[in-house]
Amino acid sequence: MARSADLVTAVIKAYDVRGVVGEQIDEDFVRDVGASFARLVGSEGAGRVVIGHDMRDSSPALAAAFADGVVARGLDVVHIGLASTDQLYFASGRFDCPGAMFTASHNPARYNGIKLCRAGAKPVGQDSGLATITADVIEGMPAADGPRGEITTRDVLGDYAEFVRTLVDITSIRPLSVAVDAGNGMGGHTVPAVLGPGPLTVHPLYFELDGTFPNHEANPLEPANLVDLQAFVRETGADIGLAFDGDADRCFVVDERGEPVSPSAITALVAERELAAHPSSTIIHNLITSRSVPELVESLGGRPVRTRVGHSFIKALMAETGAVFGGEHSAHYYFREFWGADSGMLAALHVLAALGSQDAPLSELMARYEVYAASGEINSTVDDAAERTRAVVDAFADRTVSVDRLDGVTVDLGDHAWFNLRASNTEPLLRLNVEAPTTADVDRLTTEILGIVRG
Asked: Where does the record place the Alpha-D-phosphohexomutase C-terminal domain (predicted)?
């Protein structure tokens, strides 16, 4: 059936499909998305699609409807059931077929969505398929008239766990006590399979799969959602704390004192380990990652490449440059050996391997990577993001060393101080990131910039 263009374009976004269940997304809607996706990838030679879903109450029914749309177009479906997003990427890579993951990641319980990929976990975005699917869903998919495909089920959790452990060996590290907050998300499904048994003692927090998120939002990027893990690390005396988001493709780290570790520092640590294994390789980092990352990469003989914020940009550059690793300040980490896709679990294994291969506590280990102070991302609601950005750039004109517009505007102030302002694509928000040598410098710059943005 035909649908409102406004509704469809609100749900099928730049990188994925996401909306409120029952209002924007229902079984009929995703059945049409499945049929359109099958027609798209089938025209490219695909014969089957792998489907996984998270623990949200709506996910099994939506995944089943999508599968119905796929098999109605003659393609087969391999259903892997409950999965993290990187487990779905593993299946797409291992089976060499397109995939669909039903999740709304860190969004509240009333949301759900679909992350789509081609064979080998290659991303599907607006320019690589979502625009076609949008047009199909708006027009309404015609009735299918050919033979239906078949649906089979397969449990790949054990295969996924075995594969990621072959990429990062932790069997010979010293014993570690690890506190893990799964946020009632898919980390509660994958962590036991990957991190135990072995040299790790895992202390689980909120491992019960519950798509209503009864304890806190499954979004560790927000400091309030790390508070329970920080207290849990101190309570258990753990060597390290790990927090996963709802679909467990992102991992945040807390040290033995309960202090958060910057994702930029994790990017630097993993980059160092990957360059040790693959000398002179390319490392991707997005433009709000700490400058300490490219500085470290260059010092180790690697090639740092800077990119816009967003997984589609990083994945495209990973493929184009053959980069061995890529990191974002949002705690997405991408690995060439994982089909260029992101995996919070692989990043966690790298940190555990680094920590367990020496005797210092995590806070000391990470100190060499925490070079500069940073504000973190600060959002401001504005009526005219472009006008506010121009006002800020003008105010700093006489102190500016350089300005670039790769993604929003990045203003280099010299002496390791810089800031980036980016407008949201979907909300009336202006996002600010500031980095400088000291916390006092960051606070001063942040106060001045926000005074202009919000003034």
From this structure: 377-450
Tell me the C-alpha distance between 267 and 2, whole Å.
45
Query: In terms of C-beta density within 10 A (0-12 exposed, 13-18 middle, 19 or more buried), how is residue 358 classed?
Result: exposed
Residue 82 and residue 222: Cα distance in Å, rounded?
25
For each of the domains in the chain, give its residue range(s) and CATH number, in order of start.
5-155 (3.40.120.10), 159-258 (3.40.120.10), 263-367 (3.40.120.10), 373-453 (3.30.310.50)
Distances (CA, A) of 167 to 229, 339, 353, 355: 27, 12, 11, 16
Strand 111-118 to 99-102 pairing: antiparallel
Distance of CA 403 to the CA centre of its chain: 28
What CA–CA distance (Å, rounded) separates 404 from 17? 31
Q: Return the SS3 of 403.
A: strand
Amino acid identity at 321: T
Distance, C-alpha 167 to centroid of its chain: 19
Q: CB-side exposure of 406: number of CA atoms within 13 Å?
A: 16
For residue range 229-266, list pLDDT tens digits in order.
Answer: 999 999 999 999 999 999 999 999 999 999 999 999 99
Q: Retrieve residue 276's tokens.
A: 């040790």
Model confidence, pTM? 0.95
The catalytic site residues sit at 105
pLDDT digits (tens, 9 = 90+) for 280-297: 999 999 999 999 999 999
Residue 199 amino acid letter: P
